[in-house]
Design brief:
heterodimer, A: 328 residues, alpha/beta, Rossmann fold, 8-stranded mixed beta sheet, 4-stranded antiparallel beta sheet, B: 313 residues, mainly alpha, MetI-like fold, 14 helices, binds adenosine-5'-triphosphate, binds iron/sulfur cluster, binds magnesium ion
Chain lengths: 328, 313
């Protein structure tokens, strides 16, 4: 990693307290960083805290009953210490996000043009007409056919894939330095999925935007990411450049994921279940979170391992990493 | 959309027919012979027979209906047996009064109900939310007559700020007109405000938890825009429908409230008519209010279609 990271998350922890007093530590000890023009993939099973992590970066978690600690450094500023007001100035401008649910993420009562224009005039000192021109341009850039006509459409007239394109157009309208894409293709069917990923890749080339791509599809990671952070039960358990991760996974959980890598003839297969269940996050185990499912377990695993370097550019949260030595 | 509207309009015809038959026949199912009532002290069977003939009461019921509905279409709702004036004239006299009261009550209900509903949704689970819900429930469950009497005691009797009863037309003296109607409008409005508050609250909670509100926040929009533009626009549709229906109910006259404040509107007219077996008046008033209610219902539906891009296409 030559260039200084644009986003660097350090030891992020998020705890929700429910109205019944139950506390869920959804995210705990999450660290990763991403540099300008690069794509970081965050992978992990459903419920491991991927969305919570990305929403904390955006400052979009519910205010009531949520405790966040750690540091989220974006362009050198710690977002957890910024005022709501300056966060609002960042959101949609230098920092943008697209979501898992294209069907419901657009407001059904306003035209897509209106919704993109709104994002532009919020952050740029330009009139509505100019903003409308820019919005049509953006629709064209995300390859929406007949953009000038679609501008006046309500979201219900568009398919899921088209809506996700609109979301991307909206997110990129102010040329953000960082785009967080939370499972942007999960809700879409395969061919559309490939198109959207291709689009994001092309847009990254054009704009140099850094991307955090959240997914539970290792195939997607292999295709578009430069680096990967693997999450398990609220923690980052392994970080590595993408080729190295696939060549030598260093955490037993990652090894398990590789074993269940989706086959090319069935690209939509989710991460197949590794034996055993994810721990209950309202009562996480004291030691390694993966211990209950780990074939490499040793007595030491009853204390929690740190995310520690296991190579020049990579780290793993496992007492037994690097694992190659074991195989040897 | 045109097809949808056409369908709603087509439904209107049988509905109105059914309602008119109902109104007409209820009249004839009620005990008491209108001819006898009209005859008053007169007990001479010849006279009574003549009254029957004169009002068509000797004809078979379906014929009577056709005669009646035919007259209705020409604007002739018959004549009040008691007051000896055309029913339509009575209605034209009383309608503006009830209308004024209904509009004022609706303003009170919408302003209080929507503001309170939005506030309690935005401040969910806070002290605000709690207080608003308690007050709202109290508003729904307080009987109108009790609140009316309390208001009279406070503002008319003790403080002497407002007249206790009576009515002045706004065309005569706007200020006094408002003074005479503000209390009954408040009584009627608060009762509806509670219901509107609850609907607004739940619709707003749903909207605020939606993905598109999250998108709006992700654009960096202020909470004010998020709440009043993005969430409100979607939450308001059911509230408007409800408001239109409540308005229809208000138009049929607020019997007790009008009685307490001696407001000479539809409520008072219909009560007097029922007690005096003034059939033509009862029929006329019920027909007019039922029709208005049905039309408002239709307007609410059309409004719903217009406000909803998915149906508008
Ligand atoms: N507002 C909240 N209050 C309480 N718990 C929450 C809240 N948001 C998320 N959680 C919990 O935090 C955990 C992590 O959720 P998250 O949505 O981040 O998972 P995810 O990795 O994005 O999964 P998926 O792949 O299904 O999207 C889950 O157990 C979830 O129930
Ligand atoms: S620390 Fe122990 S239990 Fe945890 S992943 Fe490594 S070997 Fe398995
Ligand atoms: Mg998620």
């Amino acid at each position: 990693m030559s260039e200084a990271p644009i986003l660097s998350v350090e030891d992020l922890a998020v705890t929700f307290s429910g109205p019944d007093g139950r506390r869920t530590r959804a995210v705990d000890g999450v660290s990763f960083s991403v540099s300008p023009g690069r794509t970081l993939g965050i992978v992990g099973e459903s419920g491991c805290g991927k969305s919570v992590t990305s929403l904390s970066v955006m400052g979009l978690l519910p205010k009531v009953g949520t405790a966040i600690s750690g540091r989220i450094l974006f362009e050198g500023r710690d977002l957890l210490r910024e005022s709501e007001r300056s966060l609002r100035d960042l959101r949609g401008d230098r920092l943008a996000m697209i979501f898992q649910e294209p069907m419901t993420s657009l407001n059904p009562s306003y035209t897509i043009g209106d919704q993109i224009v709104e994002a532009i005039v919020r952050h740029r000192a330009i009139g509505r007409r100019e903003a409308a021109q820019r919005a049509v341009e953006m629709l064209e850039r995300v390859r929406i056919p007949e953009p000038a006509a679609r501008f006046h459409d309500y979201p219900h007239k568009l398919s899921g894939g088209m809506r996700q394109r609109v979301m991307i157009a909206m997110a990129l309208a102010c040329e953000p330095r960082l785009l967080i894409a939370d499972e942007p293709t999960t809700a879409l069917d395969v061919t559309i999925q490939a198109q959207i990923l291709e689009l994001m890749r092309a847009l990254r080339e054009e704009t140099g935007t850094a991307i955090v791509l959240i997914t539970h599809d290792l195939g997607v990671v292999a295709e578009v990411c430069d680096e990967v952070a693997v999450m398990y039960a609220g923690q980052v358990v392994e970080r590595a450049p993408v080729e190295e991760l696939f060549r030598f996974p260093q955490h037993p959980y990652t090894v398990g994921l590789m074993g269940s890598l989706p086959r090319f003839d069935r690209p939509r297969t989710r991460l197949a279940a590794i034996e055993g269940a994810v721990p209950d996050m309202s009562r996480p185990p004291e030691g390694c979170r993966f211990a209950a499912r780990c074939p490499f377990r040793i007595p030491r695993c009853e204390t929690m391992p740190e995310l520690a370097p296991v190579g020049p550019d990579r780290s793993a949260r496992c007492w037994r990493a690097p694992l190659e030595e074991l195989a040897a | 959309m045109l097809q949808l509207i056409g369908k709603r309009l087509a439904q209107l015809v049988p509905t109105l027919f059914f309602v008119s038959v109902l109104i007409f026949s209820l009249q004839h199912l009620l005990p008491g012979d209108p001819a006898l009532v009209m005859a008053g002290e007169e007990r001479d069977p010849v006279v009574i027979e003549q009254i029957r003939k004169q009002y068509g009461l000797d004809q078979p019921v379906p014929v009577q209906y056709v005669m009646w509905i035919g007259n209705v279409f020409t604007g002739d709702l018959g004549e009040s047996m008691r007051l000896k004036v055309p029913v339509s004239e009575l209605i034209v006299q009383k309608l503006p009064v009830t209308l004024q009261l209904a509009v004022m009550a609706m303003i009170v209900a919408l302003v209080l109900g929507v503001a309170a509903g939005v506030l309690s949704a935005v401040k969910k689970d806070s002290a605000w939310d709690y207080v608003i819900n308690v007050v709202g429930l109290a508003g729904i469950s307080t009987p109108n007559f009790w609140l009316g009497i309390m208001l009279i005691l406070l503002f008319a009797v003790n403080l002497g700020w407002l007249p206790a009863s009576g009515y002045v037309s706004p065309f005569e003296d706007l200020q006094r007109s408002l003074a005479t109607t503000i209390m009954p409008a408040f009584v009627l409005g608060t009762a509806i405000a509670g219901v509107i508050m609850r609907h607004t609250r739940s619709a707003m909670l749903q909207a605020l938890a939606s993905d598109y509100v999250r998108t709006a926040r992700a654009k960096g929009l202020s909470e004010r825009v998020v709440v009043w533009k993005h969430a409100m626009r979607n939450a308001l549709t059911p509230v408007i429908t409800l408001g239109a229906l409540e308005f229809g109910t208000l138009l049929s006259g607020a019997v007790l409230t009008e009685q307490i404040f001696s407001i000479p509107g539809f409520g008072k007219l219909i009560v007097d008519a029922v007690f005096n077996r003034d059939y033509a008046v009862v029929q006329g008033v019920v027909l007019v209010t039922a029709t208005t209610y049905i039309l408002l219902n239709l307007l609410a539906d059309l409004g719903y279609i217009l406000a909803n891009p998915r149906l508008r296409t």
